[in-house]
């Protein structure tokens, strides 16, 4: 991975951590290789709350 790619991953991980700890979001994981991956998962927004 290039230096740019490493920096990008570091930044993304830091942002994910911020959203979890400071804003209370739950992280659903890295879905980049998931079959049927979409930008917005409608079922998460329309399903029952945990």
Structure explained in plain terms:
The chain is mostly helical. The protein has helices at 3-21, 42-46. The protein is flat. The chain has two helices and no strands.
Tally of helical segments:
2
The description of the largest β-sheet is: none
- The proportion of residues in beta strands is under 5%
Which regions are unreliable across 5 or more consecutive residues at pLDDT < 50?
A: none
Termini separation: 37 Å
Q: Please report the total strand number as a whole number.
A: 0
Rg: 14 Å
Order of helices and strands: HH
Oligomeric form: single chain
Helix content: 40-55%
The dominant shape is flat
Instruction: Indicate the structural class.
Output: mainly alpha
Q: Provide the residue-averaged pLDDT.
A: 84
Can you describe this structure in just a few lines?
The protein has 50 residues and is an all-alpha fold.
Summary keywords:
50 residues, mainly alpha, 0% strand, flat
Blueprint of the fold:
Layout: H1 3-21, H2 42-46
